[in-house]
Write a structure and sequence with these properties.
- By secondary structure, the protein is of the alpha+beta class.
- The protein has one domain.
- Helix content is 46%, strand content 19%.
- The protein has five helices and six strands, in the order H-H-E-E-E-H-E-E-H-H-E.
- Strands 1, 2, 3, 4, 5 and 6 form a six-stranded mixed sheet that branches.
- The longest helix has 32 residues.
Length: 182
């Protein structure tokens, strides 16, 4: 009987230690951050907003960190309608230039969201990463030269916390943040 109790206690301690070592990322916390990211995207410019295509989604990946994904159109008004059945070559180039300028604005929103997520998600270990992947919608008729179709931005949570606390300047944060454009 003592051996069974001892074995049960050892198993209970092992299970507790294993679950205590694994961060428990609360789904509600992720959902709150998803909504914040959506609001930032939607409030970018009241007169000429980004067009969010669906809701942002977040997932925690064990031993990696948190990944947010979203899809948007950099220019909401760039649609073919019965009143504008096509775009002229000049309008297509203007649209391309506008989207190129807006990529930098999007990168700023993504960076800000990563810092916000790092400070909010206290159960994610400092050595793990916060990543945001944004797919950029475009129509087949658009000129997409030099425009990414997807942007992935990621950094270690500790570096984002150091930036928020003023221990890391903007240039150093940019150096440690990995940005991949596809």
């Amino acid at each position: 009987m003592k051996r069974q109790l001892l074995a049960a206690a050892v198993i209970a301690v092992a299970v507790w230690a294993a679950t205590a070592a694994q961060p428990q990322v609360d789904r509600d916390s992720l959902a709150t951050l998803e909504r914040r990211f959506d609001k930032r995207i939607q409030s970018y410019n009241a007169n000429d907003p980004f067009h969010l295509l669906g809701n942002t989604r977040a997932v925690y990946l064990q031993d990696y960190g948190v990944v947010f994904t979203s899809e948007l159109n950099l220019v909401a008004a760039a649609v073919v309608t019965p009143f504008r059945p096509s775009f002229t070559p000049e309008q297509i180039e203007e649209l391309r230039q506008k989207k190129l300028r807006r990529v930098n604005d999007l990168l700023g929103i993504m960076r800000s969201m990563m810092v916000d997520s790092a400070t909010s998600l206290k159960s994610v270990p400092p050595g793990q990463r916060i990543a945001i992947g944004v797919s950029l919608f475009r129509f087949g008729w658009e000129d997409s030269r030099e425009l990414p179709s997807q942007i992935l931005m990621e950094a270690r949570r500790q570096e984002l916390l150091d930036f928020e606390a003023g221990r890391l300047d903007t240039a150093r944060l940019a150096a440690v943040t990995r940005i991949t454009e596809f």
